[in-house]
Write a structure and sequence with these properties.
TIM Barrel, alpha/beta, 276 residues, 7-stranded parallel sheet
Length: 276
């Protein structure tokens, strides 16, 4: 978890406590969260920082991750100068002296991966960052950066859900298993399309998920989370809900055990055609 939107400090603390109660320990934010096209850049980080300020010790109970590199309206900048300043600004807003994970939010085509690697290494050696990762990188971009890093690439963050299969088909998940890179999946519910399917394909996926959900006594969203978590890459879904009841459902994922036949039924429904 996640981005805050339109909540107070007290409400933010309540969401974090609910997440802890559900077994969540990774909290993923970004400097761009809160930006609405005109203002709000850094708002989610600032709110989280205010929560930390009002609750000493809370920061140390979590794995804190943030992201940088999106610069509206440029739109991307992974130069050393920009990323180093972006990190310092994030730390200031978060009211902390380090983050556990810093991720390049989207690839900057004009930044050589060797330059990006050197910047990330400097962040770690400074003590401001414990581990580094990338978000929305292609397989080739991930491989190039990982090869040039002298430290491990700890995470990748692709869009992955029962409706978005690119991490499987592109080979990205195979790379993460080969290199022992953790996978953080954003939009694991397909941007709301799993809860409210609108196309024949989306409805077919919902039916397949419901079959498992009903048999296990969990919600469709829980079944969707557990479906991506069943992949041997040990995917971690990034849950974006700000509903305390939905947050509580996260712990239900461990009730769901997929057989191969059940798991592949969802995959076939998403593909819209039988497997070869």
């Amino acid at each position: 978890m996640w981005r805050f939107a339109g909540v107070s400090v007290d409400e933010g603390r309540g969401l974090i406590d609910a997440a802890f109660d559900a077994g969540v320990t990774l909290f993923d934010t970004a400097d761009i969260y809160g930006f609405d096209g005109e203002n709000g850049f850094g708002d989610a980080e600032s709110l989280l920082g205010e929560v930390f300020a009002g609750a000493p010790g809370l920061r140390d109970r979590m794995v804190l991750a943030t992201k940088g590199g999106i610069t509206p309206p440029v739109p991307y900048d992974s130069s050393a100068a920009y990323l180093e300043k972006a990190l310092d600004d994030s730390l200031r807003r978060l009211k902390t002296d380090r983050v556990d994970l810093y991720q390049i939010h989207r690839p900057d085509i004009l930044a050589h991966p060797q330059e990006v690697a050197a910047t990330l290494e400097k962040m770690v050696s400074s003590g401001k960052v414990r581990a580094v990762g990338v978000s929305n990188y292609t397989l080739a971009q991930t491989t190039a950066l990982a090869t040039m890093l002298s430290i491990p690439l700890a995470t990748v963050q692709p869009e992955f859900s029962p409706l978005e299969l690119d991490p499987i088909t592109s080979g990205l998940l195979d790379l993460t298993m080969e290199r022992d890179i953790a996978v953080l999946a954003w939009s694991p519910l397909g941007g709301g399309r799993i809860a409210e399917p609108g196309t024949a394909r989306e409805r077919a996926v919902a039916v397949a998920l419901d079959a498992k959900a009903n048999a296990t006594g969990v919600s469709r969203t829980t079944a969707a989370y557990s479906w991506i978590m069943a992949h041997p890459a040990k995917v971690i879904p990034i849950v974006g809900t700000q509903n305390v009841g939905r947050i509580a459902e996260i712990s239900d994922v461990h009730k769901v055990q997929w057989t191969r036949a059940e798991w592949y039924e969802v995959l076939v429904a998403s593909r819209g055609e039988k497997l070869p």
